[in-house]
Amino acid sequence: MPSQARTTLLYNPLEPRISYEVPFPNPVIGKRTFIDLFAGIGGIRLPFSELGYRCVFSSEWDKNAQRTYYANFGEIPYGDITKEITKQHIPAHFDLLLAGFPCQAFSIMGKMKGFADTRGTLFFDVATIIDRHRPEVILLENVKQLTTHDHGNTFAKILNTLGELGYHTKWEILNALDFGLPQKRERVIIVAFKNKSHSDAFNFNFDKRGYELASILEDDTNVDSTLFASEHILKKRQQLTTGKTIFYPSVWHENKAGNISILDHACALRTGASYNYLLINGIRRPSSRELLRFQGFPDKYKITVSHSEIRRQTGNSVAVPMIREIANRIDRILDSNQSKDCQS
Ligand SMILES: C[S@@+](CC[C@H](N)C(=O)[O-])C[C@H]1O[C@@H](n2cnc3c(N)ncnc32)[C@H](O)[C@@H]1O
Q1: Which of 31, 163, 223, 327 is the most buried (most CB within 10 A)?
Q2: Number of Cβ within a 10 Å radius of residue 281
C-alpha cells in the first residue's frame, strides 16, 4: 500500500525567507517508483504522485521550472541529463520512466541506423537510461509532429529502438479537448512495457469528456490589470471582428496575418508565442491560474514565479487529465498482474 501523503513544510534554499507546505509531497514508501525526466513543472509526475507512486529521481535544467517544481513537489530536480554525472544519481531500480522530451531532440534522428546512432540526441539519453535500468514501463510524450517528421523515419527509429531494447510499445495521438480541457492540444503518447501481456492489456480507448471554458475562467475583477489589452488593441480587435459571430465566454486568437478566430476553447498554449495571440473574451490575456487550469493543474498547485515564467512553463507542460487517465490504466494493469502473481 502507498504510504499516506504527508504535509511537508520545507525550508526553501532558493527563497530562504519562505517555507512552503508542499501540495504534492513524495510518499516515503511508494506503491511503485518512477523517474521524471525533462520534468518541467511536473505535469506528467502529478497523476503518478496522486496514485501514491514515489519519485526517486527527477531532472530539469531550467532554474525557474526547478523553482515551481520545488514549491509543489518539495524536490529540486537534477540538471542536465546528458551529463554522465547527472545520470549517476539515478537509483539502480525504479518501475517507471516518465519523459516529455523536447522536440528538438529528433531533428536529425531519421537518418540514423540503430540505437547507438541516436547518440547526440536527447532520445539517446532516454534510451541509455532505459537500457541501463530496464524499468517495467516507459511513458513518453511529444508533439504530434514527431510521428510525421522526416516522412515518419524519426518516429520509426524511436519505436525500433524501444523494440531493440526489448519493449512492447503502443502509441496514440491524443487531444486535451477530449479530456475535459478547453484547449486543443494534440500530443503523441508512447507507452512501452517490458512485459508483453501488459502491453496487450493496454489501450488508448478513453471515454471522451466534455469541456466548459467558463469553469476555468477567473472573474475579471480578480485578474491583474496589467493583463488587460490596451485601448489600441481593443480598437484593432473590434475592426478585425466586424461581421464575425461573437459569443461569451470565448477565446480570441489572432494569427500572424491578423485574422481573428473566436472559439469556445484555446489553441495549444505555447512557450514563445507573441504576447497577445490569445485573449479571453477579446479583452485580456489569461491569468497564471487560468493558464495552469487550461492544462488541468488543480488549484492547490502553487505559483511562485512570474507570470511570464508561468506562460513559458504551462506552454511546455502537458494536459494533466490526459496523463491521469493513462496513469490510472497503467496502474490497473500492473495491479492485476501482481494479483495474478499472488495466485500462482
Ligand atoms: C517539453 S518540456 C517537458 C515539460 C513537462 N512534461 C511538464 O509537465 O512541465 C521539456 C523540458 O526539458 C527540459 N530540458 C531540455 N533539455 C534538458 C536537459 N539536457 N537536461 C534536463 N532538462 C532538459 C526543458 O527545460 C523543458 O522544461
Answers
A1: 327
A2: 16
Contact 309 CB / ligand 1 (< 6 Å): no
Sign of the dihedral through C-alpha 161, 166, 172, 178: negative
Distance of CA 61 from the midpoint of ligand 1 (Å): 7
Cα 42 to ligand 1 centre (Å) = 10
Q: What is the largest CA-CA distance in the chain?
A: 72
Select the CATH number that applies to the domain covering 9-209+316-343 from these four: 3.40.50.1460, 3.40.50.1580, 3.20.20.30, 3.40.50.150.
3.40.50.150
Concerning whether 342 is annotated as a catalytic residue, the answer is no
Distance (Å, whole) CA 2 – CA 25: 12
Query: What ligand 1 atom has the least distance to the C-alpha of 125?
Result: 19
Domain borders along the chain are: 9-209+316-343, 219-286
- The C-alpha cell at 19 is 517555507
Ligand 1 and 77: CB distance under 6 A: no
Number of the ligand 1 atom closest to the C-alpha atom of 82: 19
Q: What is the pLDDT of residues 12-61, one digit of tens each?
A: 555 544 455 799 999 989 999 999 999 999 999 999 999 999 999 999 99
Best residue among 316, 320, 322 to mutate for probing ligand 1, ranked by most atoms within 8 Å of CB: 316
Q: Contact, 78 vs 29, CB < 8 A?
A: no
Q: Is 87 left (phi over 0), alpha (psi -120 to 50) or beta?
A: alpha
CA of residue 59 to ligand 1 center, whole Å: 8
